[in-house]
Amino acid sequence: MKKNILVTGASSGFGLLIATKLQQSGYNVIGTSRNPEKMQAAVPFKMIALNLDSEQSINSLSERIFNEIGRLDILINNAGFLVTGIAEEIPIELGRQQFETNFWGTIKVTNAILPHFRKQKFGKIITVGSITGLVAFPNTSYYAASKHALEGYYKALRYELSEFNIRVAMIEPGSFKTNIMDNSSTTLHRIEDYNALRNKSEKYADFIVEQGEDPAMVAAKVLKVVETDRPKFRNLVGKGLSVLITLQHFANGTLEKTILKQLNKA
To answer: What domains lie within the chain, and their CATH numbers?
Structure first.
């Protein structure tokens, strides 16, 4: 019997690649998008509507899935967006929206699925985080905070669900060539004191996306976690990520100096 997998945010970027890879690997994939009708003809998997900012949308998603297919084996949390900008410049409302979507929206989807997973006594929850959920960079304060929050939440959830045969894992990608910057939000408010740092940060962000690795690597990593019975919690994807984490935890001040040095080269 084919396993049923739900992939949120499957209309573009990592989500589209992940959903397509899993469908082509023999799984029955259901992808979500705010406007699924725009994508359905172009993808090999079923698309349904989901708005992470709407509890009604999330609740109806859960009901629809279990009414139509009866069983869900794996939930892949991928949907979200990016807020860029210097921390002091970003309005609290925009920062709050970052958390409503990236953190609370993801948690609400998970909570809508969990009762079904507990009842069937199995399931797997895979959440696409980011290296910025482990190492923060300038100009990404709220995005980094939302990804750090996901890391902590699912780390605790992993323990709580272990007795129900429900596995929890995080995918932590580094720099990849995606359209994440095209779907980002920022603020028009600018504080002059930050102009030099902001400009360097924006130029560097464009550079690392341009020089980023093939995002198909992320889809391949997700497939590996899907096919592993007891996956490890943190699954890094990309070159040099282990070094970054080591510098952050064991080399006091070295990581910050390295990041600032890279910005000055941009």
So the answer is: 4-265 (3.40.50.720)
pLDDT score at 120: 94
In Å, how far are 66, 97, 131, 205, 207 from 59, measured between CA atoms?
Answer: 11, 20, 30, 36, 40
Catalytic one of 143, 154, 159, 204: 143
Q: State how far the Cα of 98 lies from the Cα of 119, in Å rounded to an integer.
A: 32
Structure tokens at 229: 């019975």
Strands 234-237, 82-83: pairing is unpaired
Q: Which of 38, 22, 25, 21 is nearest to 11 (CA)?
A: 38
Cite the DSSP H helix spans in the chain: 13-24, 55-68, 92-99, 106-120, 141-161, 195-210, 216-226, 241-250, 254-265
The confidence score (pLDDT) of residue 63 equals 87
**143 an active-site residue?**
yes
User: At which residue do the structure tokens 């045969």 appear?
Assistant: 165
Convert 194-213 to b/e letters by CB count within 10 Å (16 or more is b). beeebebbbebbeebeeebe
3-class DSSP state for residue 91? coil
Contact status, residue 105 vs residue 79, Cβ threshold 8 Å: yes
Two tokens, residue 15: 């989500």
| Backbone torsions φ then ψ of 108, nearest 5 degrees | -65, -40
* pTM of this structure: 0.90
Q: What is the mean pLDDT of each run of 10 residues along the chain (266 residues)?
A: 94 95 97 93 94 93 87 96 93 95 97 96 96 87 96 97 97 80 74 91 80 90 97 90 69 62 64
Q: What is the DSSP letter of 134?
A: T
Q: What is the pLDDT of residue 55?
A: 92
